[in-house]
Amino acid sequence: MPDLVAPHGGALKPLMLAGEPLAGARARAETLPTIRVSSREKGDLIMLGIGGFTPLDGFMTRADWQGVCDDFRTADGLFWPIPITLSVDVTAADSIGIGDDIALAGEDGDVLAVMKVSEKYSIDKAHECLSVFRTTDLDHPGVKMVMQQGDVNLAGAVQVLSDGGFKAKYGALFMTPLETRNEFERLGWSRVAAFQTRNPMHRSHEYLAKIAIEVCDGVLVHSLLGNVKAGDIPAEVRTRAIAALIEKYFRAGTVVQAGYPLDMRYAGPREALLHALFRQNYGCSHLIVGRDHAGVGKYYGPFDAHRIFDEIPPGSLETQPLKIDIAFWCYACGGMASGRTCPHSEEDQLQVSGTQLRKWLSEGSAVPPEFSRPEVLEILREHYEHPYS
Ligand SMILES: [Zn+2]
Fold this sequence. Notes:
The protein is of the alpha/beta class and 389 residues long. The chain is 37% helix and 18% strand. The chain contains 14 helices and 14 strands. It starts with 18 loop residues before the first helix and ends with a helix. Zinc ion is lined by residues 330, 332-333, 337, 342, 344, 348.
């Protein structure tokens, strides 16, 4: 049997402690100065813990930050598309010395990690935003996050002490890269496509996943479990709707459904590269990249996230994009089609915006069955009728 794709940089490197060392580190963390991290930083920490950000050993140095912004490389020459950094305000930074150990806690106060601080540095935030997001517009949610973060970055290796509660909340859905790799091997897969989603899956998403199944051994439907924009559908609802779709409309043994702990950054093309990089760690040889992947508003062209895979040096990533245009039901074709296959005009193509769907669901109006499966709509309707239950 051919092997799964190798992890980025060679071997999986989870930074989560277990057993005796974990108990010792937890006790020690109680005695250390504690820094509260943001939701984005928490997601990054948990990814470091489970090996999703292999082979990083912690938060990036200034040289790493500069290299990643300018050349997609850390100081060691490792391909990396988005800075993974930790920031604090000046007062907190002044209270911490180089070489100090500090505890990192989530917004709820739970200790997540211990870090040995190797460097304190400031950055040109606008430079990061222009490099990563291609804009400094504060209406861009990723830009806003960077511009509002603390003015000093702390670099250093981390030991992760917690999964951030994701396992308790999501159970079997929260799989580590080692767990997805074991599952793919059990299924006898080597060519695996990841389908990245922060939404429920409608017919168009089903179509993309099935295109991938036609040419690969199987698909990992991989839902973002961290934070999305206000108004988006919460992960526990989305993942239930996806499970209902897979159960009814996919052959057994062709799909693995799982989730990962990151927040969205909305960095479009650069985030598509990060999505491919960490999917390589999860054992996926391919990433489905649709139109305006990881985009927001009108900041990126519809195929910027396709093109960027051709702009990076060959060999930067083993995981390759499956580039697919926007998909929809076409009444003239009488079936699912895409921008590449359908010759008809927009009047024949059923394209529904998120805003339109929300309006239909919250008003109790009918949704065309060509847009979404009834089993999916039923779960979404329940959410819109009782959004706070
Ligand atoms: Zn058509």
